[in-house]
Input
Amino acid sequence: MKITNVEAIELRLPESEVVDKASGAQNSLILKIHTDEGIVGIGEVDSCPRVALAVVEAPFSHTLVSGLGRILVGMNPLDIRVINERLYQSSFYYGRRGVVVHVIGGIDVALWDIAGKYYNQPIYQLLGGAFRKKVRAYASILFGRDGGETCEIGRKWVDRGFTAVKFGWAPMGESESLDLDLVDGARRGVGDKNDVLIDAGCCWDTMTAIRRARQFEDYKILWLEEPLEQDNLEGYRKLTSLSRISIAAGEGDSGRFAWRDLIERGGINIAQIDLARNGFTEAVRIADMAEDRGLRVVNHFYTTGINLAAGLHWLVSRKTAFIFEYCVEESPLRLDVTKQKMEIDAEGFVHVPEGPGLGIDLDEDTIDRYRV
Output
């Protein structure tokens, strides 16, 4: 079997619907990898889609600087580790981190989808099997404007069956009083019997984060996510040594070398790995590294159903997995890119797809409607 074409599809909501907020559900880059046996692999890149598109489509410059799409043509898609290394070496001078590794991760997801379809197995089986076939999901959504609005958001998602809700980003960080009001509203909305998770959106300096971690203790939050800028590794080390709340981070890191620094220098408690920024091959390496050092691993997901399915296949194969990020942004790119919706069950769990590969199909009408 050989790869015959790499199709990169940029999706974007109409400009009138794109707003200034921390949401990855407003645009995306979808990958289709075609083969001479008619098997098509599906992947997604969670990055800046236009820049990621250029990484796929750029022509050859020299041995260490090449667009990635052209390299794949003619290769056997089942040679996943070989392809990963070839792509990494062929982008060495302009990659190694960030968007290039995001694209390699999206390609890797599509290659695993091909492998699953070729062997007629779900990806989790190719990863070594599932420790569980379903995972408790938390609704992942942005904060309201204040505690009152955040409270109503929390009630909405608990009423829809979730037993945990995560609130994130702005306006967290504007003032101490607002920070406390937001967390108080989150707890009131979700209720004492359910879990609250707080994503600070990288908004504080180290000393402020230490203070907030202490102030949030009374609200019994499950974890405090990305309270510091992503490169403030020394701050993370200091914070985690003092915080009685678990500190989660990693959504902005791509590739095992970036993750090695965060795990070893940052000292975080929970590693949040995004499959659309790392791919299965690298996510397995990162998770092994994290779990060997006593961390728990979870997914990061705020884009389309492709990333949702990939995160499920990967997470059920991990021993330490205990909860699943389930983006609830009410955007057509979040909800309608895949035909399979993978909704939570009556107990608040989401089930891994059982079909070959990712176990999903693209909704081509949605793809055509939002294709740039």
Observations:
- The CA atoms of residues 22 and 169 lie 7 Å apart.
